[in-house]
Amino acid sequence: MKKILIIIGFSLLISCDRAEPLVKKSKTGICHKAGTRYYDQTKYFKNFSSIEDCIKSGGRLPKRR
Questions:
Q1: Who contacts 24 (Cβ-Cβ below 8 Å, separation ≥6)?
Q2: For residue 24, which of 11, 33, 38, 47 sits 20 to 30 Å off, Cα-Cα?
Q3: 3-state DSSP: the chain helix, strand, coil percent, rounded to 5?
Q4: Please, how many CA atoms are within 13 Å of residue 28, restricted to the half-sphere of its CB?
Q5: 45-56: per-residue pLDDT in tens?
Q6: Where are the domains positioned within the chain?
Q7: What local confidence, expressed as pLDDT, does residue 15 receive?
Q8: pTM surpassing 0.70?
Q9: Within 1-65, where are the H helices?
Q10: Residues of 35-51 as b/e, b for ≥16 C-beta within 10 angstroms?
Q11: Are the C-beta atoms of 3 and 9 separated by less than 8 Å?
Q12: What distance in Å separates the CA atoms of residue 21 and residue 49, rounded to the nearest whole number?
């Protein structure tokens, strides 16, 4: 029983670990990675797990980094 509770607790910890997306694509189609200049300012966005996925969806990198 302890093993099951440990596994459940660990899986909840992993799923709750990342509240913020790794990459945000803004309404204007600009892909912002976590930690970059405008990442925190981007409020209306679509989530992506990588910058490559964001670009493949039609997004682009910011002109200024």
A1: 31, 32, 39, 42, 45, 46, 47, 48
A2: 11
A3: 35, 20, 45
A4: 8
A5: 999 999 999 999
A6: 20-65
A7: 44
A8: no
A9: 2-17, 51-56
A10: ebeebeebeebeebeeb
A11: no
A12: 7
CB 31 within 8 A of CB 25: yes
Residue 30 carries which DSSP code? B
Structure token digits, residue 45? 């966005």
Residues present in the chain in total: 65
Q: Is 61 left (phi over 0), alpha (psi -120 to 50) or beta?
A: beta
Task: Evaluate if residue 18 carries a pLDDT over 70.
Answer: no
Q: Cα–Cα distance between 53 and 25 in angstroms, integer?
A: 10
Both tokens of 2, joined, read 């302890």
Question: Which residues make Cβ contacts (< 8 Å) with residue 62, sequence separation at least 6?
Answer: 30, 31, 32, 36, 37, 38
